[in-house]
Amino acid sequence: MTVLELVKPVQEEPVQAPKDRSDLYLSVALTTVVLALLAWNITGFPTASDDEGTYLAQAWAVQHGKGLAHYTYWYDHPPLAWIQLAAGSWLPGLVAPGLIAVAAGRIAMLPLQAAGLLLVYVVGRRMGLPRWAAAAGLLTYGLSPLFLTMGRQIYLDSFAVVWLLAALALALSPRQHLWHFAAAGAAAAVAVLSKETILLILPAVLVAMWQNTARSTTRPWAFGAFASGLVLVGCFYPLYALLRGELFPGEGHVSLIGAVQFQLGSRSGSGSIFEAGSGANSLVRSWLYYDSVILVAGVAATIAGLAIRRLRPVSVAGAILILVALRPGGYLPAMYVVQVLPFFALAVAGVLAWTIGRLDRWFKWGAIALAVVLAATVVAPRWYVGDRRALTANDNAAYVQAAEYLRAQPPSTVVVDDVLWLDCVNAGYPEQRVIWFYKLDLDTEVAARLPGGWRDVDYIVSTPAVRQDPGTLPTVTALLENSTVIASFGPADGLIEIRQVLKEPQ
């Protein structure tokens, strides 16, 4: 070694600049705040619905190896959402065994909703929104009284929309790796297998991929990878039906295609949203009652966003959902708005950012000041009323009392709605002797268990869900007419009655 080599300065390794984690810290902090509001009083508000109980009971069936549902699975919805629910719905019951089943299931939904909030922020940033606008989108979504109401409930739509947001985030990936696009296809397939109606807004993911890829290089490969992921994951559902001999309609069995035909053609519609008194009109009015701000602003921003390139993916999703809701005569479910909210929130934040970004400095500060004033004087008071009710109301007290009463009774043959079905099973009632009221008249297997008809039932629990369609279920009607109240809970509009069946008709 020479003297020059000895005195040669040692070259230091280049120091890498620390990664900017501002987006991570901001999104996690905001999600934590919204999640705390979502969790606060989640067991008390809103009132438990029969749909929630149904999905939770189906998750229970998966957990206990009893198939895809607690009754005959008839392909009414793809099963992947409640399979996901089954993975975590058992945990809250271990921590707080006194909770009614639906309350425990709602708590199990919180990690999913946290993922959805974070993905709203990620999609906003990957669309090119500034940090403040992505944060505004997250808060617009998360603080809406509609989200603090519907987001608490156990709905298949919540699973589907989170997976579709994941597909959008992957399709907008700045790295543009092929596996990102394949993963976007797989996520889109999981979304569809969680709730089939999300299929209608898959064009939003395709628009995002089209804008994020170059025509001559990555675009053909990206769409090929996406299609591969979509088909490879999505084919498992029809394959499952085919292997069970239940793909096509036939005598003596349910079928996937038969269920699709029912959903598309045989199901009674909700009427037009413009027709006073129709189911669709009443439903839209109820959504507007909870939060007219995000719905009205969301529709306007969605239409405007179609003309703004970076907002086009979420605007396409929102526009399709608007058009589907506007179609006359179609079926509009109560939980449909769950799919709408994140896309409306991102469109509102995006249009606001686009508008402010095109003003000069003085007008920009004026526009920001105006937005703050409007938020404080128009939005905040409206949201305060709805959010305050979500944080304080106790609408499930009657269900809690009824569940406690049933747990204390010796097992018997009891007819209940699906909110209480799992509570009875968990309390030790034989599964075959706890009957979901719908199945009494609609499932021949259940009817075979009761050769004496309604006389083989000991008790019926009369809830608003049981009483909602008087006369359409003959056996349920007979049970209500030939029973006497032995316990009742709750106010008149949410009355729950434990009724003992009289073996001889009155």
From TrEMBL:
Residue ranges crossing the lipid bilayer per the database entry: 24-42, 81-100, 107-123, 129-147, 154-172, 178-209, 221-240, 287-307, 314-330, 336-355, 362-384
Keyword Transcription: no
Cell compartment(s), UniProt: Cell membrane
InterPro entries linked to this entry: ArnT-like_N (IPR003342), LipidA_mod_glycosyltrf_83 (IPR050297)
Superkingdom of the source species: Bacteria
Membrane topology value: Multi-pass membrane protein
EC number assigned by the record: 2.4.-.-
Alphabetical keyword list: Cell membrane, Glycosyltransferase, Membrane, Transferase, Transmembrane, Transmembrane helix
Pfam families named among the record's database cross-references: PMT (PF02366)
UniProt GO molecular function: glycosyltransferase activity
Ranges of residues in domain ArnT-like N-terminal: 117-212
Name used for this protein in its record: Glycosyltransferase family 39 protein
Source taxonomy: Bacteria, Bacillati, Actinomycetota, Actinomycetes, Micromonosporales
